[in-house]
Amino acid sequence: MRRRFWMLLLLVVVLAGCSGNGAGSKDDNGTPTNAANAASGGGAGEPTAKQNITLTYLASQGWIFDAEMELAKKFEEQTGIKIDYQIIPADQYFNVLKTKLNAKEGPDIFGGQSGKSEISLNYNVTENAVDLSDQEWTKREDPLSLEQLSLDGKVYALTIWDTGNSFVMVYNKKIFEKLGLTVPKTYEELKQASLKIKESGITPIYEPIADGWHHVLWFAEPGPRYDELTPGLYDDLNANRKKFADDPSMLTALTQMKEMYDLGFFGDNTFSDTGADTGNKLAGGEYAMSLSAQSVVGDIVKANPEMKEEDFGFFVIPLADNQFYYVNPGGPSKFVYSKGKHIEAAKQYLAFLAQPENLQYLIDNTPSFTNLNFPGLKDKYSDAQKELFASYPKKGTDIQNIVNYVNPQWMDMGKDIAAMFAGSMEPADILANIDKRRADMAKVAKDPAWAE
Asked: Secretion signal: which residues (predicted)?
């Protein structure tokens, strides 16, 4: 009798647990609703259900920092959802990603560069990514960043990046002072300064061509200058009224790049140099400059404690005599795979990362971040950065974030420029190739501006 009583009591408890609408309830996608609410800022005071889920996250080398991985551990502690980061070398990443997407075997979350033509042509986001327009963080993210992630009014990814931290020339002030050099404002001034530095036994510029993408920045970032010299150039390129091959300022910039290489400004090992070594190379004093993110100064000081942050300054790329501070509102972004098994959990992770306290954690604990593309955060701008911003009142957006069909061919442009350095291609050939690839992509996109 007593045994039957306890069995009946146990049955009542089990049935009550199964019929409840508390922490164990699930939405249509199988995600515990309270856990989702907790991660997105809702459901305050309610218990959080742990989930036994592993999200795969495919990203290129250099896109995921230690601070985000620490946040992922915190996210797992709160929700039970584990993030499995799969980091691919930069020169292989897009081929690996495209293969997975074409095979319909994408990861739960995949990284990709923002840009309208990029997300349309390279990632086909209308087929491969989830519409994230209803997510709370879209109301806070910089509208310029969101614009680079949107098609037909739908937002397809989250960018968390220091979009104001443009790649600029980082220079060793002590070397400049010792040689009596000042910040160059024209290409000729940069050339003469580099010649003097080279004569002193120091390699003028550290340029990591091995990464495949970095050297393209020299050409693309001064885009506002090209648009200034040829008024309306950006609009005319997008309307197919002009071609890259028609523009003399672009030809000038590429010709100047070739001359810099031929004069030995990049050193003997530039084809094998990698961006990961930039801080160490500048810290050793064997190079005077590098085209880098402004945060590289922190890497330099870490590598050589005898150096101080104030030993380094910044100036913009002066090819084609550029004096614009070029802005890139985009950056590496996070897409949720539309055919993934854990879409709601992936959304949950993005919402977690976009919480203000977690954004601030990323700034505080990522040396390469001085700010992020969300409001209300405390930046880490140095005096040198503030001086940089003040020195270049003219600002404009770089070419790849305005002109269609440029960003998707970035690595191909890198191969062409490397071929130019090696002597197997001329500057004019590079511009012609850019035009051809743009035309091919425009036809795939059925762009009416390219209709015959």
From this structure: 1-23
Rounded distance between C-alpha atoms, residue 82 and residue 77, angstroms: 9
Residues 235, 106: one domain?
no
Residue 34 neighbours by CB under 8 Å, 6+ apart = 22, 23, 25, 43, 46, 47, 48, 49
pLDDT single digits (tens) 303-356: 999 999 999 999 999 999 999 999 888 899 999 999 999 999 999 999 999 999
pTM above 0.85, yes or no: no
Q: What is the CATH number of the domain that holds 352?
A: 3.40.190.10
- DSSP letter, residue 121: I
The total number of structural domains that make up the chain? 2
Please write the tens of the pLDDT for every residue from 6-62.
343 333 333 344 433 333 333 333 333 333 443 443 333 344 567 899 999 999 999
Provide the b/e sequence for 379-403 (b: ≥16 CB within 10 Å).
ebebebbeebeeebeeebbbbbbbb
Report the distance separating Cα 157 and Cα 114, nearest Å: 8
Q: With contact defined as beta carbons under 8 Å apart, do 434 and 412 qualify? A: no
